[in-house]
Specification:
By secondary structure, the chain is mainly α. Helices cover about 90% and strands about 0% of the residues. It has four helices and no strands.
């Protein structure tokens, strides 16, 4: 009876360990999935910003050609100032576009890394679920089983104390 109770206790503990591992694996999978969604949001926002920067560059480039009518109406100094201002805007927008495109390129490897982590997390979760299914689900221990397991543990601890005392005595005899 005590051996059977102890075996059932072991099964319950093993099942509890696998339940905890399954929860940890599911938590990791959800965490990585959240990071992937966050990266997708960042990627979409960055793509929109690149599109906006490209539009600003095109608009600024349309301002650059200076025709004869500009030279006749405002004078050379005004035209030069306008060209310098437009070129400065163009450089700013092109710098923004380059930074955003670099950010987009950096997101590629990060996305690949997150996908690998997600696949590993899904694999771990499936493995734990399979291991958990292989362990029978037992009803909670009865008070009698709990008492039997406690008594068995006390006896094992008592036997260990005796065994340790024996080894100490043997070690002392060997030293003498």
């Amino acid at each position: 009876m005590a051996a059977a109770a102890f075996a059932r206790h072991g099964i319950r503990r093993e099942r509890a360990r696998h339940v905890a591992r399954l929860r940890a694996a599911a938590s990791l999978r959800l965490s990585v999935a959240s990071a992937i969604r966050g990266l997708a949001v960042r990627s979409t926002a960055t793509r929109r910003c690149v599109k906006t920067a490209s539009g600003l560059i095109r608009q600024t480039q349309r301002l650059l050609p200076v025709g004869e009518r500009d030279l006749d109406g405002g004078g050379e100094a005004t035209t030069t100032e306008r060209v310098v201002t437009v070129v400065e805007f163009l450089a700013t927008f092109q710098g923004m576009e380059a930074e955003l495109e670099a950010d987009m390129e950096a997101m590629g490897p990060e996305h690949e890394r997150l996908l690998r982590r997600h696949d590993a997390a899904v694999g771990a979760e499936l493995a734990e679920a399979a291991a958990l299914e292989a362990i029978p689900e037992l009803p909670p221990a009865t008070e009698e089983e709990v008492q039997l397991v406690r008594e068995a543990c006390r006896r094992v601890l008592s036997d260990l104390v005796v065994l340790i005392g024996f080894f100490k005595a043997v070690a002392n005899n060997l030293r003498d």
